[in-house]
Design brief:
The protein is 54% helix and 5% strand. The protein is mainly alpha-helical. A hairpin with a 2-residue loop joins strand 1 and strand 2 (161-167).
Length: 255
């Protein structure tokens, strides 16, 4: 931050709402130094969930007074910074609105009730899975879902040449990314059934990357099964292993 490089010594994240409020009021070290402790404290204290007091105000003033900022083109840069802060504030408000709408949609969708019980799935994960999979009744077998998500394996070959087996990566990249992050989360989540499944595969000699892909496929199968069977709750002792997603065997207890 050219106007006040030392600002992040107080606010590690300058995009926080409280930090943005301070920067809009005093966008440069020079403006901050002239503010005075009383005015700066009042501004900090007025912020939502404020936990800033006189020590914070004093530290900001001290840093501003000894800042390495040259003050060159201060007026123009200050205007630019205020505009950026306003844009960030508006973006944050829009994101809050979208989050509220997302939570409302999920709360009124009975199909995702069981998905919300899965510890490895957060609100955004559930929303992406629901949106990207769409009408799951069109899937009759696990391999159809796996192929739809691009998690099926294909081998490219030509004549006598045979390449390595790789994921086809067809379909939604967002769906794969979401499953990947959820699978990573399961490895570090204590008590995770999917995490335990991953460790069993690794112990049996499967490479970690391949084991992670297997967890993603497992999560996908369980997701589709639960979406198809709205009345069932999530049971972490079960896994979607059957090829037929249309019957209860697809969610039988894992061996």
């Amino acid at each position: 931050m050219v106007l006040f490089p030392e600002f992040t010594q107080v606010f590690a994240d300058p995009c926080l709402s409280s930090a943005l409020a301070v920067l809009q009021a005093y966008p440069s070290a020079q403006a901050m130094a002239q503010a005075g402790e009383k005015a700066l404290y009042a501004l900090l204290h007025a912020q939502k969930h404020a936990h800033y007091g006189h020590p914070t105000a004093k530290k900001l003033l001290s840093l501003a007074a000894t800042s390495v900022s040259s003050g060159r083109a201060e007026a123009g840069r200050s205007v630019s910074l205020r505009i950026v802060c306003e844009q960030l504030e508006q973006t944050q408000k829009n994101l809050e609105r979208l989050q509220g709408e997302l939570e409302h949609l999920l709360a009124n969708d009975p199909a995702v009730k069981a998905l919300q019980q899965i510890p490895e799935f957060g609100t955004k994960t559930v929303a992406v899975l629901r949106a990207e999979l769409g009408d799951v009744d069109r899937f009759g077998r696990t391999d159809q879902v796996i192929a739809y998500a691009g998690l099926d394996v294909e081998i490219k070959e030509s004549g006598l040449w045979k390449g390595q087996a790789k994921l086809s990566k067809r379909g939604s990249g967002l769906l794969r990314q979401t499953l990947y992050l959820a699978a990573l989360r399961s490895i570090h989540l204590e008590g995770s059934a999917f995490g335990a499944y991953y460790r069993r595969l690794v112990e049996r000699g499967l490479k970690k990357g391949s084991a992670l892909m297997a967890v993603m496929r497992k999560m996908l199968a369980v997701t589709v099964y639960l979406l198809k069977h709205e009345q069932q709750d999530y049971d972490p002792s079960k896994h979607g292993t059957s090829q037929n997603l249309g019957n209860g065997r697809s969610y039988r207890k894992s061996s």
